[in-house]
Amino acid sequence: MKILAIETSCDETAISVVSGKGGLKKPVFKVLAHFVSSQTAIHAPYGGVVPNLANREHQRNLVPLLLEALNSKGKRQKAKLKVKIQKKLETILAREPELLEQFLKTIPTLKIPKIDAIAVTQGPGLEPALWVGINFAKALGVMWNLPIIPINHLEGHVVSSLVKLKGKNQKAKLKVKSENLKFPALALLISGGHTEIVLMKDWGKYKVIGQTRDDAVGEAFDKVARILGLPYPGGPALSKLASRWQGLSLTHPKESPCQLPRPMLNSPDFDFSFSGLKTAVLYLTQKLSSQEPLPESLKAAIAHEFQEAAIEVLATKTFRAVEKFKPRTLLIGGGVIANTALRKHFETKVKDYPEVTLLIPDQPLTTDNATMIGAAAYLRHAGAPKAKAGRASFSAQGNLILK
Description:
Layout: E1 2-7, E2 12-21, E3 28-38, H1 40-43, H2 51-70, H3 83-92, H4 97-106, E4 117-123, H5 127-144, E5 148-152, H6 153-159, E6 163-166, E7 175-178, E8 185-190, E9 195-202, E10 205-211, H7 217-227, H8 234-242, H9 275-288, H10 296-325, E11 329-333, H11 340-349, E12 357-359, H12 370-382
Parallel strand pairs: 1-4, 4-5, 8-11, 11-12
Antiparallel strand pairs: 1-2, 2-3, 6-7, 8-9, 9-10
């Protein structure tokens, strides 16, 4: 099955073409196209993602990315669009005028691609951004008479570690291989909007056993970065600063000149809390900089201590869940797993549990991308009846949960 996948949940516009085979037992994926357009530079002056700007940029980026993904920059056919079809498209894309203009000018000139379905992120995410991708998918579904598969963004992050990219050139066709996931499994999802531990008994059978009670860990990274005066995006900048500090480790926290709490580290549940950790950094920096600006070395020490505190809490809670639920596989997904120190810590710690296989996505698949959405759609399709072509009635759900 070959799937065209679309992802617009936040500030990355992404389109991929993914083929899947092997069903639910032994899924194997091949990525035929993988394109991501980042909006980081646009949102940087605001210190965070502005939903309406994200909406606008998605409208501008989707058609060019689709042409890249389909390798359709050459000769085109003459546009033949029936009045009835055009009216449907105008209705679907009524809220995206810039996208509608590009769509009517370009898409009718393309040959119908050899794909079996269109997958698109339904949520969670920023609804103004989600709607652009959803309406684009619906318009393509009408145009090409293809079924639409709505996908939970979080399920995409769960699946992301199953697709292994081979090759550095993201514009080329990518050879991939999949890892076979063994159940039961645990998934740790860590991003700017989510921090949760999910128990998986099988594909599509998810139970959230722990989650943040306030800030997501990625959000905490970004907020602490702002406190320290680091540039946007804050998470990577903070991690880079933390790497400059030497001589600290989780096993010897007293070596640090600045101590931070490990919130809910010893609570009997699997929940998290990062708001208090962020506030502790704020109070500490205010105290240390009351007389003069913080030197770079002290900023690095604070960044390192914050990062170590976050890693210790995430790892302790996760492996406590491993001990209780006895999973055969541990998956970690989401943008925060791009953090090098966090990856290394989990790779080292999992050696204490030889019965558990750790699956972590390749760096290009840690951030939002359409390849993971396509892979998740294949698994959804393999376990559910096929959707009716051109009759997708779903809507954007900014707070969609994984279940």
